[in-house]
Design brief:
By secondary structure, this protein is mainly alpha-helical. It contains 4 helices and no strands. It has a domain of 53 residues: 30s Ribosomal Protein S18 (Irregular).
Length: 83
């Protein structure tokens, strides 16, 4: 009997030329009150999108994560997005 073939994962192409949009706009602090800006960094399921996909720098990604957590705690953003 032949062994089943292994399915290979599709490689996701990531644009390496992404720039931090928050640095370009000159934003020094990300506030949890700005839910419109924060929601751009969340997936449809409500998860925080990683740096490699959004192109944000480490400083702003950390601020985004903290702002999302504070906004969830204050009930400005949902913890999950039930689809």
């Amino acid at each position: 009997m032949a062994a089943p073939k292994k399915q290979q994962k599709k490689k996701v192409r990531i644009n390496k030329n992404l720039r931090c949009q928050l640095c370009i706009e000159g934003i020094s602090e990300v506030s949890y009150k700005d839910t419109y800006r924060i929601s751009k960094f969340l997936s449809r399921r409500g998860k925080i999108i990683p740096r490699i996909r959004t192109g944000t720098c480490a400083r702003h990604q950390n601020q985004i994560a903290n702002a999302v957590k504070n906004a969830r705690y204050m009930a400005l953003l949902p913890y999950t997005n039930n689809i």
